[in-house]
User: What shape does this take?
Amino acid sequence: MIAAVLSVATLSAVGLPHQALSVSTRIDAESLTVGPTYHVVIDLHWGKDVSASGAGLPAPILQIDVPKCVTLSGKPLTEYRELARNEFLQEPYERLINDNPLSVAFVLNRAPASDDAFALNVIAYVERNGEKYFVRRRVALPVAPGATGRVAATERSNWGVENTLNIGDKADGFTLPRADGSTVSLDDYLGKTNVIVTTYRAFW
Assistant: This one.
């Protein structure tokens, strides 16, 4: 198996306590029935001396995975021009958290089952004492009147894609496109030099 270490040099991966950013969520409804519009409320709580730095992201991002009983309000964006105007976030399932707390509207397609839940993922670049960190908080929110969220697994996340890499993981051999349309393979550099794999969103 061909392997390489994925590393990120500009951001700290450890050293930021979990309480530096916590996320509380709730369903703002005393009852839930099919048809009316309801809201999920997401509130970010920053720890002492911690702020959103904007280092790579203009604001924290919320990603929402919904059960089949729920439809988020808003038109899913699919065309390039729509995505470009929206900075390539896939609304209504992704959005910048410019307002805190943030309210997300939804409707029920059918009565929820006892195990139906929203999966909420908050990602941000934050700063504390001049150091910048990438943080991710995952929350499970049952689809039930007045429900509040609970922290989901935090050790890693395959958000929407399986076999993703985390800092320190070893990558199998892969080939990726360059910006000019040509391709580059990990095999070409393995054992010859350090390899940094970056992904970036279009916020320019």
